[in-house]
Design a protein that fits this description.
Blueprint (H helix, E strand, L loop, with lengths): L2 E4 L3 E5 L13 E5 L1 H11 L4 E4 L1 E2 L3 H12 L8 E2 L6 E5 L8 E5 L15 H4 L5 E5 L2 H4 L1 H16 L3 E5 L13 H9 L4 E3 L2 H8 L15 H14 L5 E11 L2 E9 L4 E3 L3 E3 L8 H15 L4 H15 L11 H8 L10
Parallel strand pairs: 1-4, 1-9, 2-7, 5-6, 9-10, 10-11, 11-12
Antiparallel strand pairs: 2-3, 7-8, 12-13, 13-14, 13-15
Helix pairs in contact: 1-9, 9-10, 10-11
Length: 343
């Protein structure tokens, strides 16, 4: 089995510790991006995976490729062109002060990608799973066109397609709204991850007959949204929602639900205190989910539990990537949250 993900990877420049942008004279450089984060998770779990993107021909992009290769992610289908790698700046929040992200990704190499630049027949040789996110079609019309091109080719070849709806309102600025672009892409998708806001902003779907104004969303709301997504997009076989409760910047509750068309599966809830880094939490969930669905065939409950436990552990890892093993995830799934030293 082999998975391919497609999207933008960026240089991440973060303030040390909990310093604010105006307090620091240095920034820690790593790399990250939704689909690349999923690829690294899968590689760590032992799944053969490749990441497809467009990068400029310069030393920073080469460092990025070397970083991905270090984690075991296939980079042989990356295409080159354009002038720059996108950048995002991160200021990590604490307690009641939330984290801040500043994007500098205009005119990045992938934002100028065009249909026909990627040979999807070649990319999909021996592949049985393709993953994309709603961030990619938000970057530019060209990126949206290439994403649709990939989904349609994957559909032709019988490859399972998954997506994280990932609505980012600040990225949709090239003249199109998410609701105009995303439905055509979602129509070719088998496994959909998103929350109730994503469903409303991207697909125009709201919970029916359920009051969600009180701040606590009942399971019935997720079932309602999931049923409507499946009705609107009949190719979809599973709808998954992550459940994050933000007590403060350092303490979140974390769980998830999965609807398979008949049953609503609910995962255990973890209390994540003293968060190290929550960026990439949703991507680590998706990586865990894909691993679980590929590995625990026919056991959606176990697949969901693996995704939640994997992403719970991600919150203890600095950087965008989830660098944990299957054994560590299964240990937490089994109830061992002690954090004791392994000798």
């Amino acid at each position: 089995m082999r998975v391919v993900t497609f999207g933008e990877i960026m240089l991440r420049l973060a303030t040390p510790g909990y310093l604010r942008f105006n307090q620091t004279d240095s920034l820690t450089a790593t790399f990250g991006g939704g689909e690349a984060n999923v690829a690294v998770s899968l590689a760590n779990f032992g799944i053969p995976v490749g990441f497809v993107t467009r990068l400029p021909k310069n030393d920073i992009a080469q460092s990025c490729v070397m970083d991905l290769r270090k984690y075991g992610v296939g980079v042989d289908q990356i295409v080159y062109g354009g002038d720059r790698l996108g950048i995002y700046f991160l200021e990590t929040g604490a307690v009641s002060r939330g984290s801040k992200v500043v994007y500098d990704r205009a005119h990045s190499a992938i934002s100028e990608i065009k249909s026909g630049m990627i040979d999807w027949d070649k990319v999909f040789e021996g592949v049985n799973w393709f993953h994309w996110t709603g961030i990619t079609p938000a970057i530019s019309q060209g990126a949206a066109d290439v994403c649709l091109e990939a989904i349609q080719k994957a559909n032709e070849k019988g490859i399972t397609v998954s997506c994280d709806l990932n609505y980012r309102k600040n990225l949709w600025n090239y003249g199109k709204k998410a609701g105009e672009v995303m439905p055509a892409l979602v129509a070719g998708t088998d496994v959909i991850l998103g929350n109730e806001e994503d469903a409303e902003k991207v697909l125009g779907i709201k919970p029916e007959g359920v009051d969600v104004t009180g701040g606590h969303v009942e399971a019935a709301a997720y079932e309602s949204v999931s049923k409507q997504i499946m009705a609107k997009f009949p190719r979809c076989k599973k709808v998954i929602t992550t459940l994050r409760g933000s007590i403060n910047a350092n303490h979140n509750s974390w769980s998830g639900v999965l609807w398979d068309g008949k049953t609503l599966f609910e995962a255990p809830t973890y209390q994540i205190t003293d968060i190290v880094d929550r960026v990439g939490g949703g991507d680590s969930f998706m990586g865990g989910l894909i691993y679980g669905l590929l590995t625990y065939t026919g056991d959606d409950q176990k697949a969901l539990n693996f995704a939640v436990a994997a992403s719970c552990l991600k919150h203890t890892i600095y950087g965008d990537y989830n660098q944990v093993t299957v054994d560590e995830v299964e240990k937490l799934m089994g109830g061992d949250a002690s954090g004791r030293v392994a000798r």
